[in-house]
Amino acid sequence: MGESGAFLVMKNISKTFPGVKALDGVTFEVQKGEVHALVGENGAGKSTLIKILSGAYRPDGGEILLRGQRVEINTPGQAQQLGISVIYQELDLIPHMTIPENIFVGREPARALGLVDWREMGKKAQALMASVGMNLPLNIPVRKLSAAQQQMVAIARALSLNADIIVMDEPTASLTQNEIQILFRVIEKLKASGVTIIYISHRLEEIFQIADRVTVLRDGKYIGTWPVGEVGVDHIIRCMVGRDLKEKYPRERVPRGEEILRVEGLTHEPYFRDVSFSLHAGEILGIAGLVGAGRSEIMRSIVGADEKDSGEVYLFGKKVDIKSPHDAIRLGIGLLPEERKLQGLILQLDVRSNISLPILDRLSRWGFIRRLLEYRAVVDIIDRLGIKTPSPEQKVKNLSGGNQQKVVFAKWFLRGCRVFIFDEPTRGIDVGAKLEIYKLMNELVRDGVGIIVISSDLPEVLGISDRLLVMHHGRIAGELRHEEATQEKVLNLAFGGVA
Ligand SMILES: Nc1ncnc2c1ncn2[C@@H]1O[C@H](COP(=O)(O)OP(=O)(O)OP(=O)(O)O)[C@@H](O)[C@H]1O
Ligand SMILES: [Mg+2]
Predict the structure, then answer these.
(1) In this predicted model, what pLDDT tens digit does every residue of 376-433 receive, in sequence order?
(2) Are residues 379 and 407 in the same domain?
(3) Which range of residues forms the domain containing residue 24?
């Protein structure tokens, strides 16, 4: 073991990208068999540190010690040989391939003559999946699996590589509560068998549930490491953002204005049926419920992204016929979808273009002033959301995961809609930026906009909504005013009980 006795030591690691010091002399020590959480705001350097550990990036300075020995990790292959396996923020499974193919891609067990031994591969895959508690049909493409199941395939692959250090970069970002619990059980099992886990997440409550110790990074610097039993969540947040965050859910009461949107008897089998509600100017309407309760599907039907079997949508009292998201936007209804990474961004383009593309129409009315206005609007929103980028000209693909998220958000805020529908708006976003997003929502409602927010983060949706609809199995199970809503009532309704 090294001088500190730790299993893995990343010592004095630095990494600079053009215009960004992503890591500044970070030392990170992990004990054998622990679950070690790594936290920090968007752009703090978490993924970069992990990419150095996995051989995806070369550090500018520093060294890595494993079991007390200095190791060179220059390629992902070398990391693999050392037993280090990373499950990235964006899973790198091959969507059209099956579970066994994904687990063994490039390492298929061969028979004589180099033919792939499919039976052997299937058997091994089954055993690996069973070890993570999954019993799934093996011969379907992984794109048909749920996010959690895909996650388990990635973990099974890590196990097949005999990894004894597994890094998970925001594994729960797209998982349901149930799936998260399954993942946690798998983590417990891995830990019991001596596997060391490095766990990155913005959901601090998870860290207190699953981790033994937690390390905080801020602006590329190491802040500290603590056993989770010895610190509170406030302490961690303070270390992450460098200040106290007093109000977690700033909510402003705005007088409720006229009805903007009304939905009557909306039905799309088998997803949801007979859904009716209205949204007023100055109101934030939260939609709670379990994942799979039909929340996103309703919103997709409203904006014409999905069809509907029956039901009507009224805008300012007038019946409207919305056939596509384009129609919806033209009428002033914007949906920020759940799968933002896929739908929202052009990774090769810079931050400025990504933010201003949807508003160019509007800006071009002013002819030559356009570029100036565009620049101002963009710089302003970058500043307000605290998007961490060396300049508006940085390519979006070079931003950290959470900062990419914020770019999508920025783009939607500049759109000038009367109704905003946000589906899981703060997923993958750090605590400080969440607060900024809530504040922006407040500004929007102050301007007379109506907002619908779908969120699986129960404290969040309780905290920010004026009114809350709770879905159960495709129906509205109940409605609660901010004053009367509690976690317990919401959960009761969501599980099919009464409030
Ligand atoms: N390939 C790259 N080129 C340029 N800059 C980069 C590159 N990769 C990361 N960065 C920058 O390095 C900093 C740290 O990014 P990193 O992805 O490590 O953050 P993170 O802590 O993982 O954040 P998040 O929680 O948002 O995922 C950011 O400012 C990011 O823009
Ligand atoms: Mg990251």
Answers:
(1) 888 988 988 788 899 999 999 888 877 887 888 788 777 778 999 998 888 878 887 7
(2) yes
(3) 8-241
Amino acid type, 450: G
The response to whether residue 402 sits with its C-beta less than 6 Å from ligand 1 reads yes
| 19 and 115 together in one domain | yes
Q: Which atom of ligand 1 is nearest to the CA of 399?
A: 31
**Which ligand is closest in space to the CA of residue 388?**
1
**Is there an atom of ligand 1 within 6 Å of 396 CB?**
no
3-state helix, strand, coil in the chain (%, to 5): 40, 25, 35
Do 211 and 358 belong to one domain?
A: no
* Residue 421: closest CA among 311, 329, 323, 307: 329
Residue 344 and residue 366: Cα distance in Å, rounded?
Answer: 26
Which tokens belong to 228?
Answer: 């989770």
Q: Render pLDDT for 123-161 as a digit per residue (tens, 0 to 9).
A: 999 998 988 878 888 888 998 887 778 888 988 888 888
* Spatial CA neighbour of 182 closest among 124, 125, 129: 129
Comparing CA positions, the residue from 92, 95, 26, 93 lying closest to residue 56 is 92
Cα separations in angstroms, 70 against 64, 75, 195: 6, 15, 20
pTM for the whole structure: 0.74
Q: Bridge-partner residues for 267, per DSSP?
A: 310
Tell how far the Cα of 302 is from the centroid of ligand 1, in angstroms. 36
